[in-house]
From TrEMBL:
GO molecular function, one term: deoxyribodipyrimidine photo-lyase activity
Any one annotated GO CC term: cytoplasm
InterPro entries: Crypto/Photolyase_N_sf, Cryptochrome/DNA_photolyase_1, DNA_photolyase_N, Rossmann-like_a/b/a_fold
Top-level taxon of origin: Eukaryota
UniProt name for this protein: Photolyase/cryptochrome alpha/beta domain-containing protein
Residue ranges of every copy of the Photolyase/cryptochrome alpha/beta domain listed in the record: 22-114
GO biological process, one term: circadian regulation of gene expression
Phylogenetic classification of the source organism: Eukaryota, Sar, Stramenopiles, Ochrophyta, Dictyochophyceae
Length: 114
């Protein structure tokens, strides 16, 4: 957990003049948590270490409301409210580490390249 916090802070505050950066996206889908999240740890590692010839980059935590992410059309109001509260908690946790959660709406195929 301490590694994760340090990596988020380091990724959020890294500055470089190099044009080639190892930016990384972590797409939150079902695991809306910071702890016990191997995909997030790997995205942080990539952003921090980069690849040969690149400078450290930034991590962009993303959640996309695509209608199927939690079956928006078929879920109850309580379930939808629960997901919204989880997203707010995740954003608050990321902000406490100097980052934030980027929330978008639409088809992930169209949204992620933006």
């Amino acid at each position: 957990r301490n590694f994760l916090m340090a990596a988020v802070v380091s990724s959020a505050t890294s500055m470089t003049t190099s044009p080639l950066r190892a930016n990384s996206i972590h797409w939150f889908r079902k695991g809306l948590r910071l702890h016990d999240n191997p995909g997030l740890v790997e995205a942080l590692r990539y952003a921090k270490e980069g690849k040969p010839g690149s400078a450290p980059g930034k991590l962009y935590p993303v959640y996309i409301l695509d209608g199927d992410s939690f079956q928006l059309r078929h879920c109850t109001a309580l379930r939808a409210n629960f997901v919204v509260e989880c997203l707010a908690d995740l954003d608050a946790s990321l902000r406490s580490l100097g980052s934030r959660l980027y929330v978008a709406r639409g088809d992930p195929v169209a949204v992620l390249p933006e």
